[in-house]
Sequence to fold (80 residues):
Amino acid sequence: MMDTWKLQDAKARFSEVIDRALRDGPQVVTRHGENAVVILAYRDFAEREPALDFKAFLLAAPKVDLDIERPRHLPRKVRM
Fold:
């Protein structure tokens, strides 16, 4: 179970939030009563699966043939 902090408490006791993240695990910070962010130790972050970079993300997308055509005999109207 992760500890939860209201934003104003987390700001006022930031060092304690960091110490607990290092010692006890991820800390949740709420804003307006809703979960906003998670503070976790770098070692926990580094162990997570690495995110794809944008190029790898696009290349991993399924291939889709959109087959979109427009009539070539009609000129497009361009505002000047």
Summary: The helical segments are 7-12, 14-24, 42-47, 54-60. The radius of gyration is 24 Å. The chain has a mean pLDDT of 89. The chain is about 40% helix and 20% strand.
